[in-house]
Amino acid sequence: MARPSDQLIKVAINDLRGESGIWSQESGTMHGVSTKIAGLKFNRTEAGLFQGIVGKHDDIVDFSADRTNEGATEFNNIGTTLKAAADTYETEEQNNREQFENLW
């Protein structure tokens, strides 16, 4: 298998960085969703006739907000990992290129 061209390598690295940015950006979106979910709680006065479900409703809201917040953290972790992979790929490619050039 032939070595990929410098342009192809650059495209791959830029794609990784682009995906990293998308995951990190969407992490913020997920945090926003978590905040909105947390705002869905209501008190017994607001519940009126449905006061009996307030506790269970609040449990569901808390659970959903927590899971969404965890998702936001993982989205950010994926973005960070993709960026690190791109950086490593770029560094290793540069090191390998220099090693092969110095063989001749």
Protein architecture, described:
The protein is mainly α. It has helices at residues 6-38, 44-47, 54-101. Helix 1 packs antiparallel against helix 3 (54-101).
Helical residue percent band = over 70%
Query: What does the overall shape look like?
Result: rod-shaped
Report, as a whole number of angstroms, the end-to-end distance: 21 Å
What portion of residues belong to β-strands?
Answer: under 5%
Please compute the radius of gyration using only Cα atoms: 24 Å
Content-based structural category: mainly alpha
Instruction: Return the domain count.
Output: 1
Mean pLDDT reading: 91
Number of strands: 0
What's the topology here?
Elements: H1 6-38, H2 44-47, H3 54-101
Helix pairs in contact: 1-3
Give a short overview.
With 104 residues, the protein is mainly alpha-helical.
Feature tags:
104 residues, mainly alpha, 0% strand, rod-shaped
